[in-house]
Amino acid sequence: MRTTNRPIFLDILSIRLPIPGIVSILHRISGVLLFISLPLLLWLFSGTLNRADAFESYRAFVSHPLVKIGLLGLLWAYLHHSFAGIRFLLLDMHKGLELNTARATAKTVMALALLCTAVLGVWLW
């Protein structure tokens, strides 16, 4: 016999997270993405240090548009993870725990990460 009014079926798609929750989840996703991409990034960095012909094959690989889009995604992941990490460090120091401040800093993290990705992406493309 059920005595609580809890839902039997939880519709995940209808749940709306607040912006601080979205920033928190994206912080975790970006951290996992950066960790998984470490072998690729190390391979790319090693390609810049080898012989001249290895550098040319590296440049040919990196100049492909799909690779550029992937690297742009990794740039966003790095920037978002960094800005959100600073936000979480401040929250750990009990700075910005008020609801309005937490929402404002979460929006700032999202905007800064997207803006810096756009600026650096245009500059590096």
From TrEMBL:
The keyword Metal-binding applies. The chain crosses the membrane at residues 21-46, 66-90, 102-124. Its cofactor is heme. InterPro entries: SQR/QFR_C/D, Succ_DH_cyt_bsu_CS, Succ_DH_cytb556, SuccDH_FuR_B_TM-su. Pfam families: Sdh_cyt. SUPFAM superfamilies: Fumarate reductase respiratory complex transmembrane subunits. Keywords: Heme, Iron, Membrane, Metal-binding, Transmembrane, Transmembrane helix. It is a multi-pass membrane protein. Its main location: membrane. It comes from the Bacteria. PROSITE patterns: SDH_CYT_1. It is found in: Membrane. Part of an enzyme complex containing four subunits: a flavoprotein, an iron-sulfur protein, plus two membrane-anchoring proteins, SdhC and SdhD. The complex can form homotrimers. Membrane-anchoring subunit of succinate dehydrogenase (SDH). Belongs to the cytochrome b560 family. This is Succinate dehydrogenase cytochrome b556 subunit. It comes from Eikenella glucosivorans. The gene is sdhC.
